[in-house]
Structure formats: C-alpha cells, structure tokens
Amino acid sequence: MLSCAGHWRRASAIVYPALVSNVSLDHAALLVESLEALLPSLAARGWVAGPIRSFPKEGTREAYVRLADSGPDPAGQARRGRLLLLEPAGAGPYARALAERGPGLHHLGLAAPDLSAFAATLPASGWFVHPYSLRAGTQLKDLWLFRPGIPALIEVFESPAADGPPSLIRAVELPLAEGLAALLQRLGCDSLLPAAGGEAVLQTVSGRITAGELLRGPR
User: Fold this and answer.
1) Mean pLDDT of the chain
2) Helix and strand tally (H, E) in the chain?
3) Are the CB atoms for 56 and 95 separated by under 8 Å?
4) Under DSSP, is residue 211 helix (H, G, I), strand (E, B) or coil?
5) pLDDT, tens digit, for every residue of 11-38?
6) CATH code (residue 141)
7) How many domains in the chain?
8) pTM for the structure as a whole
9) Domain limits at 210?
10) Helix %, strand %, coil % for the chain, to 5?
C-alpha cells in the first residue's frame, strides 16, 4: 500500500507536486452493457464507433468512438482524447464491475513520456497501485492506480506526446470525495478536473455531457 488511514484523514491539508510533467489523457473508458445497443445514440450525436475488437484474455469487446465526419486516425498516429467503450464478454473483472456498479465510467488512460520515472515517484503519493499492475512480473507494462473517493481507475502507460487536437474528449470532470482534488492534480494531466456536481462529465469537442447522459442516449 502507498498510503495509510492517517494520510487519508489529512489529505485535504497536503499539497502534492505533480508526479511527472507532460502527462496526457489518452482515453476515457466507459463500461457498457451492449456495444451494438449504443450505436444509434452515438449516431444521433454525430459520433461513430470504429471496428469492434474482442479480447478474450481480458474478457471484453471494445470499440473506440470518433466524430462521424473525422475519419479514422492515420496508421501509427493515434490521437489523444479518445472515447473507449468496453463491453464485458464472459466472466472476469469487467463483468464483475458491471454487475456491482452498472454501466458508467470505468477508467481513464493516461500517456506518460517515461513510465519508470512516473512509477519512481509513487511512494507516499497518496495513490494506491492495483495488483493488476503486477500481472507481467518484473516487466512494467503499465500502472493501474486507484483511490477510495475517486470514481474511476487510472491506467498509466508509456507513450510519447501526440500532436494535434483531441480526437473527441478534451477533458474529464470527476466527482471527488472531500480533499482529493490535490491527488488528481498530482497525476500531472491538466485534462482531469474536479466536477462541480456528483456525476462524471466528459468535455467533448461537441460539448459537455455526463457519462450517464451518453449511456442513456439523446431524448
């Protein structure tokens, strides 16, 4: 564990510097009951899902969403700020998460220029490292972070900075427990913001929308 109960109680009084700089929002992942059922509501917003890919090992079917008139990203030039839809496929952690919490924001994917440097600053940061991060043994592939009071997992992986405007999502507003805004800032990503209300909000190139509104579809 990277923190303790006393640290939790004192979080509001601590000012944390950023872990590293130049961390960007690569994607926001929403857990959904059915990818196909969501396609009409995406189309009504002028969005379209890319090819649906299956990942049996992870137990998911996944698709990235983009503006209908933007065209796919050029090969090898994926842009930041993507929206990822995850549908559980069979038993596993995603199916359990859907059963326990229902559809909604699952995780935020952050791209860091140096994952080892990011990891070296984690001790005493206030963030907890999920055991899933250790699945590759000593080979650090990515980091999965969590904190009670923050309603999404944080995935951090190594990737160079991407040029150009975001594909779809400019920023994500997260409802936080009291005193945790500083920990969000510590991730070094200026696209992660505290929410004014009690629901996660996606700031997209088409406007602001809550995760719940997106999953319910336009009325």
Assistant:
1) 84
2) 6, 13
3) no
4) helix
5) 334 445 566 668 999 999 999 999 999 9
6) 3.10.180.10
7) 1
8) 0.85
9) 5-216
10) 20, 30, 45
